[in-house]
# Entry
Amino acid sequence: MKILFAASEAVPYMASGGLADVAGALPKALCAAGHDCRVVLPLYGDIAPALRQQLRLVAQFQVPLAWRSQYCGVWQGQVGAVTYYLLDNEYYFKRPGLYGFYDDGERYAYFSKAVLEMLQYLDFTPDILHCNDWQTGMIPLYLNLFYRPVPCCRELRTVYTIHNIAYQGRYGTEMASDVLGIPYYAMGQVEYQGDVNLMKAGIEAADRVTTVSPTYAQELLDPWYAHGLDGLLRQRQDKLTGILNGIDTESYNPQTDPALTVHYNSRSLAGKAKNKSQLTSQMGLEEGRMLMGMVTRLASHKGLDLVQYILEEMLASTPLNLVVLGTGEYGYESFFAQMQKMHPGRVAVHLGFVPQLARQIYAGCDTFLMPSKSEPCGLSQMVAQRYGTLPIVRETGGLKDSIVDMGNPQGNGYTFQTYNAHDMLDAVRRACRDYENQTEWKKKVRRAMACDFSWDRSAQAYLALYQGLLS
# Structure
């Protein structure tokens, strides 16, 4: 099977979040399963020079976009078994960073058109075109409106994945004709609640719609989670499915991770204890307590208002230390900085994001807190288990699909259901009580480390979806 994976970012070229991890890892797993999966993304100005030097120009053409005609160059790279195509237009993509520009809608409409134009210039004709998030939402619609007569597109099937429905690509309705070039009779496929909505275009036009966990697929039918798109998704529920993301188990491996000074595995946990001791010393924390970690964006949907409300009581009533790594909203940054000053030796905070420190927290902590208000999939809880750190999570989205409470014999973490600070505190207290029995705690750690969150499992689910489309 031939699959083209279209995304606005992908590891190792450009990354700002979980989408890049998926776009780097899922194609790798599909290739390992014997299929030809390739990735297309923009050639951003911030891509590292060392990576740019490995690219070669394979095609050049013009892209029609409404009344415009814009240049596109296709640069090809290879990372392992995966071929990458990077689309070059300096006007749109030679800028610092990825998103947040006034013309993002036009930039990614251009990218969507360019992906389809590119297919006519390659010696690669995909069976499946897999699009991701609002930046590629126009691809299925452009395919149906303009490219079906093209020989390489006649039998092409499309999958559209929603990674986070909060970001939909919403713009004024004047954009439909002037920028997107949508004919009047098709306006209804991009207009939603008085706006142009690029995510809506993907949902309407794709053959199948997926999201990144089964529970999140159900939550998106609820107005509380769907950011206004629940009505549309209920109408299109017949083509919606949820497939849980995976993690790159080669990169996240406590036996080989170069960020760790002491390596370990589930058979010998002495190395994990040494990583905890080093992290405790490095962060200026006191020894002898359960160490709970957080590596997170400091944003409200991550459940940080629960932590803000209960942290003083948590520290007073439980024998734990807390280490936090993250950056985000000023109010949360100020709160954690203040807690560090008020509780030296108990709370340590690093504002910012340091990849090496993140891995040291995954390896050195005993538990990992994720009290999210919403979490489409979440990868941190999977990574934490890979390093033998037991997650404490709220049952939402992918957290519910990947974590089973320790009240179950097959439990791999601690969960709470309602969005309530004292329910979260109860889960933390249960973890603290279990931690006191180190013999049983190590059994729980080994059980968590044995969980399979590799992309191989997720790739098989996507392959079944693709094969169902082609048949």
About this structure: The longest helix spans residues 455-470. Residues 31 and 37 are 6 Å apart (CA to CA). The domain at 270-453 is CATH 3.40.50.2000 (Rossmann fold).
